[in-house]
Amino acid sequence: xxxxxxxxxxxxxxxxxxxxxxxxxxxxxxxxxxxxxxxxxxxxxxxxxxxxxxxxxxxxxxxxxxxxxxxxxxxxxxxxxxxxxxxxxxxxxxxxxxxxxxxxxxxxxxxxxxxxxxxxxxxxxxxxxxxxxxxxxxxxxxxxxxxxxxxxxxxxxxxxxxxxxxxxxxxxxxxxxxxxxxxxxxxxxxxxxxxxxxxxxxxxxxxxxxxxxxxxxxxxxxxxxxxxxxxxxxxxxxxxxxxxxxxxxxxxxxxxxxxxxxxxxxxxxxxxxxxxxxxxxxxxxxxxxxxxxxxxxxxxxxxxxxxxxxxxxxxxxxxxxxxxxxxxxxx
Amino acid sequence: xxxxxxxxxxxxxxxxxxxxxxxxxxxxxxxxxxxxxxxxxxxxxxxxxxxxxxxxxxxxxxxxxxxxxxxxxxxxxxxxxxxxxxxxxxxxxxxxxxxxxxxxxxxxxxxxxxxxxxxxxxxxxxxxxxxxxxxxxxxxxxxxxxxxxxxxxxxxxxxxxxxxxxxxxxxxxxxxxxxxxxxxxxxxxxxxxxxxxxxxxxxxxxxxxxxxxxxxxxxxxxxxxxxxxxxxxxxxxxxxxxxxxxxxxxxxxxxxxxxxxxxxxxxxxxxxxxxxxxxxxxxxxxxxxxxxxxxxxxxxxx
Lengths: 331, 302
Prior knowledge:
Largest sheet of chain A: 8 strands, mixed
Shape of chain A: globular
Structural class of chain A: alpha/beta
Order of helices and strands of chain A: EEEHEEHEHHHHEHEHEEHHHEEH
Number of helices of chain A: 12
Largest interface: A-B, 56 and 37 residues
Largest sheet of chain B: none
Radius of gyration of chain B: 25 Å
Order of helices and strands of chain B: HHHHHHHHHHHH
Number of strands of chain B: 0
Distance between the termini of chain B: 49 Å
Number of strands of chain A: 12
Oligomer: heterodimer
Radius of gyration of chain A: 21 Å
Number of helices of chain B: 12
């Protein structure tokens, strides 16, 4: 079956003074119906830019240089503005990071959910509000009949994010992009939101692109993972495979940064300290053709310094990695 | 795997436990707040009295303001409550009938001001780039023309009628509203809920008028209220300079026509002057009250 979303060789650049600065390079991935693709990486790696490129909502000075994005057989990059508005919110929708600011403070949540239905499904105001109640129930908001008339400021962060999810799923989109949907939320609420997402996904068969820092969520929710570093995909594959057997030093570094809870006295040798990856993501414009992770890599060798970054190398059926030394690092 | 993430939203969950209060629309909340502002209420009452007087006054006081009702310069007294002007026209009748024209000019001119200003400011602020540059240049062009002089030219060119005067006032005074609206739009257009609306498929028209503009309204409403006062003063100024509509009695016209006789009959200009003063003051007080009601940063904690 054809994938719901297919991104091929996507390259996005930022228009600088007389020059183009690459932001995303040659990114390719597919998401099938009912599957979840996670995009992982530090801030500034191009995760959100990927999401905005798919929605065709990139800021003015960012342009798509090459590549193709196909949603449910439709060429997103060739779509005219009117066509795009028909796709957004209808076939593809997006949940934002900050539920506190992503809802319009002047309209009730029912109005805001209903607005999407009125626009794409041409429902009357009354029918739309009625549907909004159903969607609030679907995202497990208690007292939905009353909450539908509530203003965003009357709801908690978790509830607002549920409202955002209800809005995003109102038209049963083929694709849902969740841009760090839980970063701004309480830990227990985070788990609830992820549960809700996976439950709704089971019901609606929506394909999800999940952008996150949370590797725990990746392990639980995602079928596939793409690890981005400085705008390049450096490791990609089935999430089970990547989590259990990361090959790229950066992915390994990220995994090491996940804190683990331990009961009992802290063993003196483990010290209880969190790992970190030294250094920072190279800023835009300071990325050469060699491996972008090179300055921070503990495994960097001669081969890394003398060659440009290798293309994604398919190492087995379910994983690909872009590293010269992956066989030595993770045989 | 137990992944721990720190989060600052610890209070968020507690809020959901609170009992749900009935939803109050932002407009209703602002109105309630307005009713608590003493200056706003006083202003509203005074303005209401003025408006009712100009609407119903003629039924109770049937002297035509343009008729000669007595000897010129009759002082206030039994023959004419507020005296007569240099032609012997009744001042009180002038105040009652003239208020209609003055307040209408003020209101309509303010509407024109806000319509032009908000449209230009909204388009400039929302689209940015070349559109913004072009519209800002147009705004600046109108801004450097001295408004009173510009209005005088317009009225001289197109005739001294109330309609021309109203439009002229609107055309020369929209720049403040445009700059204000543009600034609000620049602030709002990149907020998350605007992006979220766009991501839900909203077009530019919907985003401008239904998403961004309602959020930009508070300062615009205040500026619209004050624009009424400014327009009334403007009409007074034009009439004072002899550019009022001679066929329609207005407060400004009364002052303008009697200005040479201040020393012969102080009442001829003092009463219409006082009427303008009171009306503009009432409108400013209302503007103040609205500002208190919708600007939470200025709101006093009760």
